[in-house]
What does this fold into?
Amino acid sequence: MSVFATIYQRLSESTELPWRALLLGVFVVGGLMISVGKETDDESGWHTLYWYGAMLILTAQMSHTTRAFFMGEGPSIWDFGRYFLALDGDLKTVQKASKSDTAARKRVGFLTLMPSTFITWIFAKSINNSSTLGGRFGLLGGIAYAGWYVSFFAAALVGYQLRTRYGFRSLPAAIERCYGTVALLCFSLALLYRLWNEVWSNSVVVASFYGKTHSHNWWVAVAVSTMIPAFYTTMGGMRASLFSDGLQAFLGLVFLFVILGLIGDKFPDGINQVWEWEPSGGWLPGGGYCLLAALLQGFGSYPFHDPVLTDRAFLAKPRVMLVSFLTGGCLAVIFIVLFSAVGIADCYVKNEANLADGLPAVVAGKCGSPASLGRALGSAAFTWMNLVMMTSSMSTLDSTFTSVAKLAGLEFAGYLHLPGDTRGGRRGPMDADNPSVTPLNIAIGRLAILALAVVGSLNLLSNTEALSATTVSGTMVMGLGPPVYLLLLWKYNSQPGSGDGYRKAPLAFLFSFVPGIVFGAIYSAATIKDPEGVKRNPDLWDDLQGFNMGEGMYKTFLGVNVVGHLVCFAGTVIGFLLHQYVPALQLDCCDGEATTEDPKTGERVPTPGYEGHHRDGAAGELPVDAIKAERVADSMSSA
It folds into this structure.
C-alpha cells in the first residue's frame, strides 16, 4: 500500500473525522461572512484571529474519561503526527486508553510536558510586560521580568518532593492533610483569584491590537480570544490543553524569531544593536530592584498560587517532570528576555520619528508597546506581533481553564456527596484516579470553565493594566510560600495513628496567609489609579514610602515584599509551634500517604509502615494491588 493510501485509510478510520470535517465547513462559511461583511478597517487582523482559533478548535482533542480530562492522559501530538503521516504506529496504539497508572504517566512524556510548561507561562501579559519593562530599563527590564520565572524551579522542587518522598498526588491534598479544611479553602480561593486574573490580563493584550480600550472592536476581541480556548478546553480539558500547547510552543518560537528579524532590519547594525541602544536621557533607574523583587516572589510565593504550573508538576513520571520543568523554565527565561527587544525597538522607532519631525527625543517609560511597534513597522510586522500575542494568550488561557476545571471538578466537588461517590463519611479533595470520580465531575469542570470565561472578563470594566496582574497578585499571596515549603520538612506518623508525627497545624498556614493578604490588599489599594492615571489613594501611597528599599519606581514594591515575606515566615513558624506545644491547640498527628512514587518509573511504592493501608475518604489512596485491580476493571469495562 502506498504512503498516500495509508494516510487516507488512517484518516478514514478516525471516528472524529466526520464532525471535524463538518466543523471545518462551518468555519469556512464564517470566514466568508467576515470577508463579505467588511465591517472593520482591519479585516486581515480579524481573519488572523478567526483562523488561528479555528485551527486550535479543529485540532483539539476530546476527552471522555476522567484521567484524560483531568490528567491529560493519551497520545501526544507527536504520536498523532507520526501515525497520520504514516511514519509509524498503528491505530490501536494511538487510540487505546492507558491500562495502568504507569502507562498513563508515560503518555505524558517529556515532548508533551516540556513544551506545555514552557508555553503556558509565556503569557500574553508576560511578553507584553517584558516589552513594557524593556521600554523602561532596556535589557535589564527583560532580565528583571524573567526573575519571576524562577517559579519553574521552585514548583518543580516542591512537586518532586511531595510526590517521591511523601506520595501526594496534588498540592491541595498535601495542604489539606497538614493544615486542614479551612487552610485548603483559603488556598483554593487564592487559586481562583489567580485564575480570574489570568483571564482578563491575557485577553486584554490581544484586544489592544483591535481597537481602543472599551471600544466595540476591543470588546469583540476580548470575547473571541477568551471563548476560543474556553471552547476547546471544554471539549478536552487537560488533554486538549497539552495537545495544543505542543503546537503553540513551536509557533511561538517561530513568531518570536520572525519579529526579531523584522526589528533587526530597523537598526543600522542589525539585531545586536538593540541591546546597546538607549535613549538620550538613559533608561530609568531601579531595574535591579525590580529584579530583586521578582526573584523574591518567584522563589518565595508566586509559583504556588498558580495551578497552571503546580498542576503540571504532578503530571508525567517525577524525573520526566523535573527535566521538563527545568528545560521549559530555561526556554521561557530566554524567550522573555529576547522579547524585551520589542520594547527597546519601540523606543528607538519613536525616537527616530520624533527627531525627524523636530520633536523632543523619546523618554524611557513613555514607550515599549508591542502593538505600537507593530503598527509602526507596517502591516506584516503588526500581523506577526498579533500572532505571537494570540499564541501566548490562548496557550495560557487554555491552561487556566483546565486548572479551574480541576479545582471545581475534583477539589471543591470532593466535599460533595455526588452520585457514584463510594467514599465514607470523610470528604476532601480527590485526584482523577479516585474511583468516586465520575463523568459528573467532568461536567462540573466544564461548567466551571464557561463560568470563569465570563466572570474573568468582568474586571476589564475597570482595570486594564496587565502588569498589575503580576505585581499585585504576587504580593497578595506572599503568605503561601512559607507553609508550602514547610510541607517539605513535615514528619508524618510512622504507622497509621501512631501519634509520632507532627500535629495538624492550621495556624501555621493562616498566620502566614492572612498577613500576606493584608500586605497585598494595602499595596493594591495604594496603587489603584483612576482613568486619568492618578492614584486614588495618594495618602495611603505616601504611608507606604516608609517601606522603600533602593531607588526607582519599584522601590516600594520591593520593600513591601521583603517585609511582608519576613512577617509571613515568622507567622508560619509561630503557628506551627503553637499547635505542637500548646495543649489547648494540639490536634491529631498527621498520617502519611500509603504509597509514594518511584522517581524513575512513576510506580506507586508502599510507604514503610503503611503496607496494605486504606484511608477511608482520602485522595484515592489504595494498596498497590487494589490500584492494579481497579485499572484492569476500568480497561475491561471500556473495551
